[in-house]
Amino acid sequence: MVDDDKGSATTTIGWRQGLTERIDSLGAAKGRFVQESAPDVETVPAERFFDADFFAECIAQHAGVDRSQLDFDVSSGRPADGVDMRAYVSRYVRHYAGSLSIAALVGMAEGIGLDLSVSRCSFVLWKTIPFRLVLDQRDDEVVRCSERPASWSAAGPVLETLDELRAHVCSRLYGEHLDSFVNTVAERTNLAPGLLWTNVAEWPTTMSAAACEYLDDDVAQGYVDDQRMLLEDEVLPGVTGQPNPLRDRMDWTHVDDGAFPDEVATRRLCCLSYLLEDRFGRLCANCPHLPVEEKVALIRERHGALPGSTAGDATKAAIERGLQRRSAQQVLQARERQAAGRTSPSVE
Description:
Blueprint: H1 15-24, E1 44-45, H2 52-63, H3 67-76, H4 85-109, E2 121-126, E3 129-135, E4 144-145, E5 158-159, H5 162-189, H6 193-214, H7 217-232, E6 250-254, E7 263-267, H8 292-302, H9 313-340
Parallel strand pairs: 4-5
Antiparallel strand pairs: 1-2, 2-3, 6-7
């Protein structure tokens, strides 16, 4: 620990207000952190999502299928009522990880160390998805850092180095919380841990890209530096006994035309969202099945667009590619099931 003044913010804005405002300024991240939960808003503790029955009920409601089918259908990969449940589980994990990661990563980039342990976290659900994070943390528990002074005021201990700040955040977010959640989901659903960890790994990329898009360069640099550390280092700071589960999950391609974006990220494993009924086949902007030039077009089309905006040409192209892939995959799966006498191929 070091002297409090070395990690102090130059503003009187509290960390909750500052974090909320910063998150809300980062495009699609808006609304993912609850500054103060209203008494009439129901929140669900993170511990409940580790309960097999509760998790299965959430997935069933999210997919609109009969809960009685779910134990067999998700674990085997078989579609329930014609719905590919793997895609719904994947999206659930993607947003669960996102709600945690957005708060943790924005805070860390701004010199604020939050504790995202399971017992600290609750969620406000949106369409049964854990979409908005509610964090139980006092001001005097929020860690600061003299090497990266806090952007907002907090009253917790001051660590000397950035490495210590990162270890504080990562040990709780990844080592204690998401590692247990990913392993629990993988064991119950037969989805490969590699797919689920890719869902986690895309968030540092998403947040650094949003920072580069919406913030000044000097502010965004902290987000970029953290992303590189999280996705490239062999081990995560503060997480011992295992290699970095986020490493080798994402690739980047430089775009050299002088316009936004200057690089695009690509997942190494598809999240399967194009199989969701409400996605109409649309591939994501970081999907490995979407050519780079179409990724760039989709990102540019969506820049500044409001949720629910009319689909443009790039979005329509992403939908068409996804529908083509979905049709081809359904034919392939049917042939494999017939030939091998099993339900559907596993996901890695």
